[in-house]
Design brief:
CATH architecture: Beta Barrel
Radius of gyration: 19 Å
Structural class: alpha+beta
CATH topology: Lipocalin
Oligomer: single chain
Number of strands: 8
Distance between the termini: 53 Å
């Protein structure tokens, strides 16, 4: 009887655990991942999705463009360094909620930010550019 209770309890624990998909890992409060401009940004496609996606991975920012077709599906299929991005990539770092992107030749883009919407939105806090457009994570409901 004791063994059957332990087995039943173990099965219940395993069934109650939510398994995260490898395709959409939980990335809360990290810049790593795919980011778009919000749907209310000028220049958004007829689908209501940004024609530009930034992929941040392992200290490199990749830039992808979508000019036709199902942009969201295309963006989901792209992987860092897959050759679908524009040729030029940029190194980035984060320290104390400041994203610094090295645009080469001594040019740095320094972007103070805060995460919102459980890590699904990057709200840039740049007093010099208060109208700077935020980023939303691809696939998040934070738009």
């Amino acid at each position: 009887m004791k063994k059957s209770l332990i087995i039943t309890f173990s099965i219940l624990i395993l069934l109650s655990c939510e398994k995260k998909s490898e395709e959409t890992p939980l990335l809360i409060n990290t810049i790593e991942g795919k980011w778009l401009y919000p749907s209310d940004t000028p220049g958004i496609s007829a689908q209501g999705i940004s024609n530009t996606m930034y992929l941040f991975e392992d200290g490199i920012r990749y830039t992808y463009f979508c000019t036709e077709g199902d942009c969201e599906s295309q963006y989901k299929s792209f992987k860092a360094g897959d050759g679908n991005h524009i040729t030029r990539t940029y190194e980035y770092s984060i320290e104390d909620n400041v994203l610094t992107i090295d645009l080469n030749f001594g040019n740095l883009m320094v972007l103070p930010f805060v995460f919102e919407c459980d890590g699904g939105r990057l709200n840039f806090q740049d007093s010099d550019f208060p109208d700077r457009v935020d980023f939303v994570r691809l696939g998040s409901a934070c738009d």
